Fold this sequence. Notes:
Strand order of the largest sheet: 5-6-7-8-9-1-12
Number of helices: 14
Largest sheet: 7 strands, parallel
CATH architecture: Alpha-Beta Barrel
CATH class: Alpha Beta
Helix content: 40-55%
Oligomer: single chain
CATH superfamily: Aldolase class I
CATH topology: TIM Barrel
Bound molecules: ligand V47
Shape: globular
Structural class: alpha/beta
Amino acid sequence: MDSALKNIRQKVENQIRLSAEDAMTLLTTPDIWTVCELADRVKRRMHGDLVYYNINRHLNYTNLCALSCKFCAFYRKKGQEGAYEYSVDQIKAEAIKASEAGATEMHIVGGLHPWLPFEYYTDMLKAIREAAPKLHIKAFTAVEIVHLARISKRPNDLRAVLSDLKEAGLGSLPGGGAEVFDDRVHDEAFKGKIRSDKWIEVHEVAHELGIKTNATILYGHIESLEDRVHHLCMLREAQDKAIANDLPGRFQTVIPLPFIPDDSELEHLPGPSGLENLKMLAVSRLMLDNFAHVKSFWIMQTLELSQLALQAGVDDIDGTVVWYDITHVGGEHTHQEVGVTELRTAIRDAGLTPVERDTLYRRVIRDGAQWHVEDAPVAV
Ligand code: V47
């Protein structure tokens, strides 16, 4: 073991919070196995040998976007080849298909569409809720929420906007759009997007309204290791606040997202290596002691690395997915799906026990085509 990790091991064993300096040591040590072992220890303390997965559908309703983030290969401008937007009827049809296939969650995000009205978004939620009432709608990143506040002419009333969306059927907020909480990186790679304080504010207001949310970090582009650590510390602080204020909503899950360079303006960069991905997942587990879950998004991590990460702090794999347009690993196709059997086998082969969960981490019980959830979330 790298002797620099001795003190950190003691802290982990005694459940003492790690510092930003500890995180830097973990990110720079060559001793990857000790980092993974420590993260696994924390994961097992929280979840035993359980690993969660969900049967979900991702829907990216438009790639038209007012922003032009350098890391993003997804956005298109008006009139550009490949630009698209779904109609509310098309979204409804997708929700019906998802529900009939047994999905419990629809994860919906898109670009900042320049001219769709606020009603498009509330109509979309209402249509899904009506057509597939059991489907949990996890939709709109904090960036989209601020955009919706602007287009509904309430730029300073996030509470009203989120309340309207909740009323229309919004169940929770995904963790996207956080990127890296640093102004230099922001100005270089995603200028024009909301800054960290606004991203945190949207989640805080959601938590006040009892809406659960997730958080991401997009790493492996032009940020420094210090920036990553700062980001994790900011998330931890925001969750501390939600807990101290006893808010009805919380962050549930952190999803570290490795930068995929292909076709983006930053495609000259190599993107993070497999070892770096494993380390980021493990360090997220170790630093975010007040987050219940660390998720590996296999679309970006690959299923193989996600499986390995189950021994390195990860307790959750998203999901069956099916269609995903924002990034593609090793191909052009938006059809990106794993079957339930494949997911469960990957978890079992890692020596762990798969548990199907819904968006709120309640155990899903299936009986043929029917399903229901247990009342309480799986104990943590
Ligand atoms: O916000 C965009 C990122 C995010 C690239 O909450 C890229 O459960 C890598 O947030 N390389 C969307 N990442 C995905 C997301 C997510 C995924 C799975 C689960 C959850 C959840 C959230 O993807 C965007 C952006 O940060 N992204 N381009 C890229 N080239």
